[in-house]
Structures are given as structure tokens and as C-alpha cells.
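Per your request, structure below.
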């Protein structure tokens, strides 16, 4: 590899992308992670939980003692592999394939979780999509609306469906992005949705404080997930993460512990905040 190359050049033709096709495979959980049963007996819903950051979060939650429902679009093989790993940890896992921006679908997810586990404690709004374009004029209305539908409308619908069933001590965690703070010249619609997610997180935290429900977010930088090879050219993938102070992309396993912290009682006095996991980039946000 050259000094700027961080990964083998590769590309996938369809989003959200398949983890099984990635080389090297992303690391979802590492051998050094020491669980402490921080989420024992809790129930979590994780969107985009089939692969990438969502899979890592789901596995870390299960390692900490939670049962996990995974909401995903259509990568059934990745979702089944994640479920199998959760079952191997002795925890329960439900899979829900569909459009999280659909109100009726979200109601079905919540109803089935309550039927299975009788409670809901943590919601992780993580699913997202991105489509780079060099110019604003190149972004169609359809692309703009679809990106907002996936990244923020779905967050609104599922949060609204879950909220009546959350009690004091519950936690909502949203995935925003470094692009909400730095911007990105070719991800105009994606960055805009991430700015909306950051504002939604802060405002919802204020709204729910009196109910004892905490709302926070995680803002990843460049993380090696299926969205990367399914978004960018092989040449750009080969240099992914090289512009960070650490000079490399992060692994999903390096992001997931931030979600564990925000889901657990360790963060009982933390709400309306964003944790930046980005390889050392200072964004002052």
C-alpha cells in the first residue's frame, strides 16, 4: 500500500451494501472488550443493525445483557448472521425488514417487541444512506427526498412509535456524523440530514428531560462499514480515512462502546450531547 492507501480498492453496486463482500471484514467486537452486564435484562431496538455500526452496537448490547430487535432494509444474510451471533451470546434477537419511515411498519416493530419481551428501554436510530454528487444541480428531488426519508423521517416515525412505551431511565441514541460539523462537498443532502439529526437530538433531549428519558447522539467519522464500498469508487475506498489525524478509518468495534455508555446508567447525567468518534478530528461541536 502507498502512504495514502488504507484499504484494498473495492466497490459494491448496491446500497446499503453487504458486509460479507468487504475485504477486510469490519471488526464488530474485539477480543479485548470486557462486558460488565451494564444492560442486563433491557430491550433495545437498533435500526441498521444488520451490519456496520448497527451490528457492532447490537452485539455489544447483547454482550452487556440486552435483548435486541434489529430493523434493517433488505440485507437478509447480514441480518441473520448478526442474529446468530446474538443468540450465541444467550440473548434474544428479533429481525424486522422494511422501511422505518413507514408509520405502520414502525408500529408493527414496537408491537412485536412488546409481545416478545414486555418492555422497551433503548432505541438506537442508526440507519442511513448517502449518495455523493459533485454539484447541487446533480441532486434530483427524488434523491434529496429519499435521503431525508431514510435518515431523519424514519427517526421521527420510530421514535414516535416507541416513545409511549419508554419509562424514566430509558435512552434514545441517534447516529449523526462528522459531516454535520465539518460539512462535505459531495454529500450535501446526507450532511443536511445529519445536521437535522443533531438538532433533533438536542431538542428532543430538552423535551423529554421531565420524563426522565435521555436523548444523545454519536457522530462517527470515517468508519469501515458496508455503506463505504457501496457509496464510493474503488479508488476513493482505497484512501478512506487517510485524512484523519490517526491516518486510518475506524472499526465499528471502536464506535459501539460509545453507544453502550449512552444506553447505560453510567451516563445518567448526560443528555442532549454528541460523542465524537472520528479518529482525532477536532470539530468543537
Amino acid at each position: 500500500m502507498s502512504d495514502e492507501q488504507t484499504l484494498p480498492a473495492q466497490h459494491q453496486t448496491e446500497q446499503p451494501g453487504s458486509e460479507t463482500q468487504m475485504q477486510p471484514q469490519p471488526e464488530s467486537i474485539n477480543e479485548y472488550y470486557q462486558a460488565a452486564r451494564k444492560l442486563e435484562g433491557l430491550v433495545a431496538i437498533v435500526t441498521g443493525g444488520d451490519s456496520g455500526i448497527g451490528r457492532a452496537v447490537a452485539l455489544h448490547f447483547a454482550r452487556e445483557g440486552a435483548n435486541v430487535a434489529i430493523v434493517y432494509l433488505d440485507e437478509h444474510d447480514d441480518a441473520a448472521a448478526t442474529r446468530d451471533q446474538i443468540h450465541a451470546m444467550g440473548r434474544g434477537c428479533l429481525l424486522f425488514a422494511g422501511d422505518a419511515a413507514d408509520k405502520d411498519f414502525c408500529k408493527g416493530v414496537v408491537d412485536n417487541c412488546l409481545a416478545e419481551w414486555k418492555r422497551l428501554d433503548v432505541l438506537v436510530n442508526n440507519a442511513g444512506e448517502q449518495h455523493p454528487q459533485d454539484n447541487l444541480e446533480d441532486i434530483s428531488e427524488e434523491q434529496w427526498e429519499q435521503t431525508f426519508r431514510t435518515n431523519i423521517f424514519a427517526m421521527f416515525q420510530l421514535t414516535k412509535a416507541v416513545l409511549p412505551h419508554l419509562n424514566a431511565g430509558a435512552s434514545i441514541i441517534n447516529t449523526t456524523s462528522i459531516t454535520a460539523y465539518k460539512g462535505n462537498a459531495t454529500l450535501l443532502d446526507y450532511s443536511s440530514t445529519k445536521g437535522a439529526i443533531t438538532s433533533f437530538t438536542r431538542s428532543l433531549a430538552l423535551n423529554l428531560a421531565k420524563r426522565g428519558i435521555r436523548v444523545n447522539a454519536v457522530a462517527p467519522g470515517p468508519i469501515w462499514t458496508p455503506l463505504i464500498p457501496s457509496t464510493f469508487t474503488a479508488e476513493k475506498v482505497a484512501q478512506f480515512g487517510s485524512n484523519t489525524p490517526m491516518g486510518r478509518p475506524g472499526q465499528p468495534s471502536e464506535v459501539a462502546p460509545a453507544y453502550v455508555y449512552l444506553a447505560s446508567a453510567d451516563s445518567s447525567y448526560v443528555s442532549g450531547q454528541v460523542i465524537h468518534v472520528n479518529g482525532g478530528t477536532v470539530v468543537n461541536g
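The chain has eight helices and seven strands.

Regards,
D.
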